[in-house]
Write a structure and sequence with these properties.
Ubiquitin-like_domsf; alpha+beta; unfolded protein response; 11 strands; Thioredoxin-like_sf; five-stranded mixed β-sheet; 3 domains; 54% helix; Glutaredoxin; UBX domain-containing protein 4; Ubiquitin-like (UB roll)
Amino acid sequence: MKWFEGSIPEAIALAKSKQQLFLVFIEGNDELSKSMGTTYEDSTVSSKLQGSKCVAIKLQAGSEPCQQFSQIYPVVVVPSSFFIGCNGIPLEVIAGSVEPPELLNRIEKLFQPTPVNDNGNLPSEVPLEPAHSAPTTAAAATADTSSTEAVSSASLEERVERAKRLVEERRLQKMKEEEEAVKQSELERRRVAREMQLAQQAREDQERREWARKRAQEKEEERRHRERIQAQIAQDRADRAERYQQEKNQEEQRKREREAQRLLEQQQRAAQEAAARSQVARIQFRLPDGSSTAHTFDADATLQDLHNYVVETVQPSFSSFTLSTTFPRREFTQEQYRSTLRELELAPSAVILVVPVSTPCSVAVPAALNNSGASLLKLLWSLLAPFGVIWSLFVGLIFGSPDPPASASISDSGSAGAGGASQRGEASASFAAQEPQAAQGGARRRRSAQQPSGEGMYQRDGNVYRFSNQRFSDEDDDTNTWNGNSTQQM
């Protein structure tokens, strides 16, 4: 197919100058456009169009020439073929793609001549020769035929006039048909334009709805993203706060531990310095029956001196015993008997438990028990010592307090639960009242053994104990009054 290479105005001018049909083919990039292009490239179709003297031009859909053409002839469908006459009226519009035979059929209908009615010509029964041969026959006619010729001349004029009228009517009818065709073409153009406008408006509405939907979707995604970011920020803040609180708690815990360690070290240093500075060691001995005895030793004295003092002065009811402390729990061995009290951290004061090795009753214990159960018995007596103190207090509160076995006997229910520092504090407190009588403890213990039961150097009034020098008198001390010179008054 040979297409015109110039512009649209040039093609229109060429078609008008040659009084030829103007073909405009608008194609796109889809399959229908390719199929219609193949139809135009068919040899039969191309030869028919070129033989009919048709000016054909091809436009690309969406191009500037196509947009200019669409302003005059609306393009509804791509591909489209417009067959336009010399007067600018579209004679045929083919939308979409058609096969070559159908296109040939439509082209043949376009190029068929308009049938002219025979009424437009002179009637066949009217002979026209007499009009041309009248002068020749008139010269040869006779006088008899003159009237006949006059009648024939009159009827000929009538026929000519009638033929003119018919030709004029035919011309007017043709003009009317052309006007009607123009009117129908204008109506069709308006209808196509209105449909195109409605289609464009529907497309714009669809685009606006699609834009609104996408915008709403974008806003929703932005909102969700913002919420996720806010939740992440809140979670990060909570995590940071939790980590900060944990670090703060850990730092406070470490501070407390360091402070406790520092205080412990200070206490240990203070105890060590006090032990190093102290020249004496105040030792309180506690027996399983709850009684206690205090004595002051030199800080450089050995543990063997304490053992000898217990044997010679305290004189417990058992002969075999060990020395130990409760807090910290320590049981001194024979190797430690050569160590000084300062080295054993028993200065300046300490509490020593006198724990018997064997049971108080004289029962024959097998050698296996002596060997394997010695440590168990020591542990048992150290555990039972607090209960012995509690029992002695309970008996003293109910049945009265018996004479103490020593001059410095003191009942202490907290001996088993006090620590090393508490033991030193208790020993120091007890030494304030016991130290003047510590040297005469043995003699007083022997004198108390000779006293009658229920009488002693103390008198109990509830939980208050008072010194008394009427141990061998049966008089009621509550009936007597005393002044500063010990003079009895009635």
